TrEMBL record:
UniProt GO MF annotations: 2-oxoglutarate-dependent dioxygenase activity
Ranges for domain TauD/TfdA-like: 65-319
Cofactor(s), by name: Fe(2+)
SUPFAM superfamilies cross-referenced by the UniProt entry: Clavaminate synthase-like (SSF51197)
Protein name, entry field: TauD/TfdA-like domain-containing protein
Alphabetical keyword list: Antibiotic biosynthesis, Oxidoreductase
A matching Pfam family: TauD
Highest taxon in the source lineage: Bacteria
Organism: Marinobacter algicola DG893
Length: 352
């Protein structure tokens, strides 16, 4: 079969110095109608796939673990420089990208994890995702109650939110039977839309809000919450955070002040606006997404799983650090990853 045609290319928008309470001009400030999927989907060629598979085989032959793998241990002579372009576009351009065509069917879980991790090593450095120190995460329905556990362990729809890393990366091993679309919207565009209509509500969202930690509390600290601004500007760079279930759950923590009427109105407008400017990505097996947590928000629709355990929706997840963008001090603290309790396998090959 001939190679697929890869039409991916970086955007050509410019950035201006950002200032709070003024319109933000940023390459990540797009509307869905302005996007061309051929330009944000990077389709792997046969030769690039061969490079990936050769690197996986090299890792296996050397007996390396996932933690041993950096870009040097996973050489991609041709694809590597293109992945650097993808990283730059995610962090400094439109804010997200999708790499399509990784062959995962018929390969072992370890081989697929090595491929995902190795490709990610050319994008950034893995960070811990929970108190267990997991560097490789799993988005899979474990039958949990969203009110009690983190949303990625359930099949429930999730609010638009951000993760505690520069880049969120997901690799689709198995798509859902139905639903489970990956949703992305620009927090830059969301800010600008709200600023045009209700600048007073934007100002409310520049304050620091309480977010529940849900058990992932750093050693030496006791507060079950953290505080972050939803909209902030640092050294001329904008950053937007999600209004997610973490905030709603924090409202139930004793001592956390209740929302004011203006804050409630700002949150409503934020939540009503985000879906209107979002795109939906229907994951295919072998897709790898990269999303900048400082300029993008992500969510997912609820989904129906297959009955067979081996066919259930299953995404691998990495939180990647690039240190390419200045952010608010509280956000920077979060980007170090979730503090670890005890010693467990940091790269489990299935959801635990």
């Amino acid at each position: 079969m001939p190679d697929v045609k890869n039409l991916w290319k970086p955007g050509n928008r410019h950035r201006e110095l950002a200032r709070l309470m003024e319109p933000i001009v940023d390459p990540a400030g797009w509307y869905p109608a302005e996007l061309n999927a051929d330009e944000w989907i990077y389709r792997l060629s046969d030769s690039e796939i061969a490079e990936i598979l050769a690197a996986v085989q090299s890792v296996e032959s050397a007996g390396l673990t996932l933690k041993d793998i950096g870009a040097a241990e996973f050489p991609l002579p041709t694809l590597g420089p293109r992945l650097a372009e993808v990283r730059n576009e995610v962090m400094e351009g439109r804010g997200f990208a999708l790499v399509r065509g990784l062959p995962v069917a018929g390969r072992s879980r370890f081989q697929n994890a090595v491929a995902f991790w190795g490709i990610g090593a050319h994008i950034g450095q893995a960070r811990s995702q929970n108190k267990h120190g997991h560097l490789l995460g799993h988005v899979k329905n474990l039958g949990g109650d969203y009110a009690k556990v983190r949303g990625y362990m359930t099949q429930a729809a999730m609010d638009f939110h951000c993760d505690s890393a520069d880049i969120l990366s997901l690799c689709c091993l198995s798509p859902a039977k139905s639903g489970g679309e990956h949703r992305i919207c620009s927090s830059v565009t969301l800010y600008n839309e709200m600023l045009k209509a209700r600048p007073d509500l934007v100002e409310e969202l520049t304050a620091r809000f309480y977010l529940a930690r849900k058990g992932d509390i750093p050693p030496g600290e006791t507060e079950p919450w953290e505080r972050l601004p939803i909209f902030s500007v640092t050294d001329g760079y904008f950053a937007g955070r999600g209004i997610s279930a973490h905030m709603a759950k924090a409202q139930k923590i004793p001592g956390v002040p209740k929302y004011t009427e203006l804050q409630e109105e700002a949150i409503r407008m934020y939540k009503e606006t985000a879906p209107k400017i979002a795109i939906d990505i229907d994951f295919e097996q072998g897709d790898i997404s990269y999303v900048c947590n400082h300029t993008m928000l992500h969510s997912r629709t609820d989904f129906e799983d297959y009955d067979e355990p081996e066919r259930k929706r299953h995404l691998l997840r990495l939180w990647l650090s690039t240190r390419m963008r200045p952010v608010h001090s509280e956000i920077a603290r979060m980007l170090r990853g979730v503090p670890i309790e005890g010693e467990e396998d940091p790269t489990p090959l299935d959801a635990v």
